Amino acid sequence: MIRMSTPAPHPGRWAALFVIALAQLMVVLDATIVNIALPQAQAHLGISDADRQWVVTAYTLAFGGLLLLGGRIADFWGRKRTFVVGALGFALASGLGGLAQDALTLFAARGLQGVFGALLAPAGLALLTVLFTEPGERAKAFSVFGAVAGGGSAVGLVLGGVLTEYADWRWCLLVNIPISVVAVALALVFVPESRADGDTRYDVPGAVTVTLGLVALVYGFTRASEDGWSAPWALGSFGAAVVLLVAFVVIEQRSSHPLVPLALLVQRDRGGAYLFSTLVGAGLLGAFLFLTFYFQIVLGYTPLQAGLASLPVTGGVLVAAGVASQLMPRIGPKPLMVTGGLVAAAGMILLTLITPDSSFLTLLLPAQLVLGLGLGLSFVPLASLALVGVGNQDAGAASAVLNATQQVGASLGTALLNTIATTAAASRLAEHPITDPSQTAEVAVYSYVVAFAWAAALLLIGTALIMVLVRAGRREVATPQVAHLG
């Protein structure tokens, strides 16, 4: 029997936090670290322009689509065991990608990274849930986790720039091997095992259905970007996505062992947190994508300069996450998330003021700082709110849904905003044909501005949903129930 109470704190919990944060950083980095390396990898492996986006989406789709299954496996197979297997598999997949001699091998390796990341990430967050039971300590732990989740993407851009410029694009993948080895060695020493009791059967049909549905949806956006929204392939992909995702819901309703208990989604506090997470993921990854284009294509920054120029977002996240961890036990999650969402949207709106020769110090630096501050205020209460009232039996599933919403949002947001930007550029060219080479930058900037405006709208919609749906206050967040470690 699982005795539901507040156990004595585990003595190795802070060392375990370091291990979990290290592994989470590796997982988050791989969503963006290859972005800057893409031109070099594309040239070396002969990847076409149409196919190069799969270097990014193969990872995020496999990761986001299988996180739900990974959470259930972590719950019943053992969170420490799942964490270790995920880290080792991630290292092997990274080695395969780093040594790839053709495009198909690289795409497959990125997909495998997503598969093992889907084991690693939910196991880590579920371990935090059972390791930190005291409200103040839990807030600090989630602030570290939130800062890593929020700032890891920008760090990935910097690291990708350094490795691409001074070593080789392959090291953007190979660098994961030593990180994984260190994480596994420390986990074996400092991380305790925990698991839930009960039936250990898994919902494989649900996992396959939701993953294929998301792939079809992203592929639809990709085809719409190239051929138009009414193209047969685009419409067919969207139709297939709807059918598959509806089938997923039906499977979950009828399954005796669902991939994710639908009750986790319909509870308004968690449901609001998951919706907000999806929309923030879409806007955030879109911002990094188009900022990278703007820095390198329009302003002429080198890969390393572009990565360094993205650091203000990370700085803002780190500062605000520390503030949020102190305020959340006093004021609860909702005020922080609403404030954070509005501040992040303001930062995104500032980015819509860019021109072909904007100043970094007077516009790009403050805009990114504001964006980072807003995100930092949001991430800490978001992680905690998504797990409020979740028992030990479903801790892995609830944390997997949170991670999945961020990855799915990133995949869909990148595809959607790229389609919107491409359409905007084509429309601008149709209305104002280029008569001078200098106008090329103006068209590119116009498309980025449109994308930033849509990203800001996504953040504002997410904030409005938090205002309407979330009711949990500081007491609900401060009194979690978790099971004893065993």
How would you portray this structure in words?
- One of its GO terms (cellular component) is plasma membrane.
- It is found in: Cell membrane.
- It holds the Pfam family MFS_1.
- This is Drug resistance transporter, EmrB/QacA subfamily.
- There is one protein chain.
- Helix content is 79%, strand content 1%.
- It is an all-alpha fold and 486 residues long.
- It folds into 2 domains: 4-193 and 259-483, MFS general substrate transporter like domains (Growth Hormone, Chain: A, Up-down Bundle); 203-258.
- A two-stranded antiparallel ribbon has the order 1-2.
- α9 runs parallel beside α17 (395-431) and α17 (395-431) packs antiparallel against α18 (439-469).
- The longest helix has 37 residues, at 395-431.
- The chain is globular, with a radius of gyration of 21 Å.
- The N and C termini lie close together (11 Å).
- Mean pLDDT is 81; it is low at 1-5 and 478-486.
Number of domains: 2
What is the CA-CA span between the terminal residues?
11 Å
| Poorly predicted regions | 1-5, 478-486
What order do the SSEs take from the amino end to the carboxyl end, as H and E? EHHHHHHHHHHHHHHHHHHHE
Question: Strand-residue fraction?
Answer: under 5%
Mean pLDDT: 81
